[in-house]
Amino acid sequence: MTQTTSPLPTPPGTVTDGFAGRKNFIWMLIALTIGALLSVWAAVCLGVVPIAPADVFRILVDEVFHMDIGDIASRIPPYYNDIIWELRLPRTLMAVIAGAGLALSGAVMQASVQNPLAEPYILGVSAGAATGATFAILIGNAQLASGLGTAFWAFAGALAAAALVMTLSGTGGQMSTVKIVLAGTVANALFLGLTNLMIYMSGNADGIRTVTFWTMGSLAAAKWDNLALPAIGIILGSFYYLLQPRILNALLLGMEAAVTLGVDLNKVRRNNMVITSLMTAMIVSSCGVFAFVGLIIPHIVRGLIGSNHRRLVPCVILAGALFLTWADVLARIILKSGEMPIGVITSLTGAPFFMYILLKHTFSFGNR
Amino acid sequence: MELALKNVDVSINRKTIVQDVTLSVNKGEFAGIIGPNGSGKSTLLRAVYRLFKPSRGAIFLNGENLNRIKLADSARKMGVVGQFNTVDFDFSVLEMVLMGRTPHKRWFGSDTWEDQQIALSAIEKVGLAGFARRSFSTLSGGEQQRVILARALAQQPQILLLDEPTNHLDIKYQLQTLFIVKSLGIGVLAVLHDLNLAAMHCHKLYVLKDGMLAASGPPEQVLTPQLIRDVYEIDCDIRKNPDTGCLSISYFHNNPFSAGGDHS
Questions:
Q1: CA distances from A227 to A36, A86, A131, A219, B125 (A)
Q2: Which one of A112, A135, A261, B9 is most buried, by most CB atoms within 10 A?
């Protein structure tokens, strides 16, 4: 409700921006942080072989500090250590990183083109990264296919896709929904075609299996040593965007307003496309394409706390991590016979969401 | 703070929209740009607020060529109330107005108590006290326009550029807006539609026709029935209202189509 009196007196030191979502924000931040930590814990416990939370704790203490509490050797089978430390923990951390990175990339792309449908998958940036990674694995030599080499080529592919989309949809002002969807469709078709072309030309059965595995998205290959690169990248990216909500907000106002506030929209947009392409490429090259994470998460979070990036960015990062952690748990336990690619789960949750946003005809940033 | 345009041409897609415009706005001066639709008023203003670069000539801010000033630096000196304001996002009024502080902040700086006071007093100045917590997208067009004015005020500019700042407002707020702007004592360059308002508020007028200056000077000299017939192709009567002391322009009730034919 509106106040009728002047809202001036606020004690020095407390700065509110007069938004009703602020209270929601603090609770949401607390809930998301606790939720993310507990989810990582739960994700490590759950699986084909369920392991008790207390035992997980003992194993982690043993691995990290080499401190044996509660006599691990006699109570817990030794292979539990391997399951927790070599398989589930790196895998869950990869889910956290990929989820955070994709959701953040989505939010940043949306502000940069002033359209809430922009995200790495819909714009075809993920497909471009997949093409680059496929090239590194199938065509490139062993050196190219190393973690860094694959990431490099994935980045090149992602940048090419981003450049294509930006050219197709025209530079300057706001990007219309029609343009985004069409340009993204073109980029997706082109890069998927290139990927398939390489797969069929290579005739390398082993390589083909690897490639199909991660074009559907999977965290199964996550290990401590391939976790490092995306972890560093996404953490740096997160800090970068946590520090500039002001610029992201100005972008949301569009070309004219951004320029009058001293923000060079074209330059900032270009930078953002490069940085989000880089984050997407690191994720795609280590765990494949996850569709729609960058669409679903920012949309839900915006609905709860509004469009201000000061609040949006931290919540989107945490919510993305939470979402992919549970998607991965589901991927691991839903089938008796084995594992479902996590991309199947994100697509099946994301596609109805995409339809819902399109049908609502309000392509807006949070409409409460 | 002084704004000066010297022989400025503005072209969009190689089509020259504005040609050879020279004008200046000094501190405390209210300059108006008038002219019919499509005469290049908004394009000229956009070149001043750096959406377009002049294809010829130069724009000077305090004697310094605008092309050599960083965008963030000129944004600290120039506030803009533009014509188009998209509304498909969800910010509170206070959040919108606080964005006016952007050019004064480092990119990572957060809003201080002082910024908030500046924003709140700007909101109060435009008559929206109590609206700070309202969602911008739920406001009427006129209220939104006043929020944008408040944002420009929070920018604490030394020169203010207005593109038809009154076009969504009812008469009370039209007068109020121009009064607020005038009371700041800074230079103002405004594109105005309403000739009566322009005559009442402007110290000098620049009349654009087909992208070129047709006349310039104080309203009393510029606004003549002859000029208005040349530029707008209508007949009018202009006299000083003895009660308000302002020029009053009344248009003759003739068929604009036949009038246009007569003078072509």
A1: 18, 12, 21, 11, 54
A2: A261
Separation of alpha carbons A252 and B90, rounded Å:
10
ipTM above 0.90, yes or no: no
Tell me how far apart the alpha carbons of residues A223 and B225 are, in angstroms, rounded to a whole number: 82
| Tens digit of each residue's pLDDT (9 = 90 or more) over A267-301 | 999 999 999 999 999 999 888 898 899 999 999 99
Categorize the per-residue pLDDT at A13 as very low, low, confident or very high, splitting at 50, 70 and 90: very low
Q: Which of B91, B105, B131 sits opposite A2 (nearest CB)?
A: B131
Question: Listing from the earlier edge strand, what are the strands of the sheet with B15-25?
Answer: B15-25, B3-12, B56-61, B64-65
Distance to chain A for B228, nearest Cα, Å: 31
Domains of chain A and CATH, by start: 36-360 (1.10.3470.10)
- Preferred mutation among A6, A176, A260 to probe B, highest tally of B CBs within 10 A: A260
If you measure CA to CA, which chain B residue comes closest to A266?
Answer: B51
CB contacts of A6 in chain B (<8 Å) are 120, 124, 129-130
Q: Verify whether the Cβ–Cβ distance B82 to A16 is below 8 Å.
A: no
With CA atoms as reference, the chain B residue closest to A362 would be B88
Domains and CATH numbers, chain B: 3-223 (3.40.50.300), 224-264 (no CATH)
pLDDT at position A342: 86
CB B136 within 8 A of CB B147: yes
What is the amino acid identity at position A197? L
- Distance between CA B221 and CA A291 in Å, rounded? 66
A180 inside 8 A of chain B by CB: no
Whether residue A93 is predicted with pLDDT greater than 80 in this model: the reply is yes
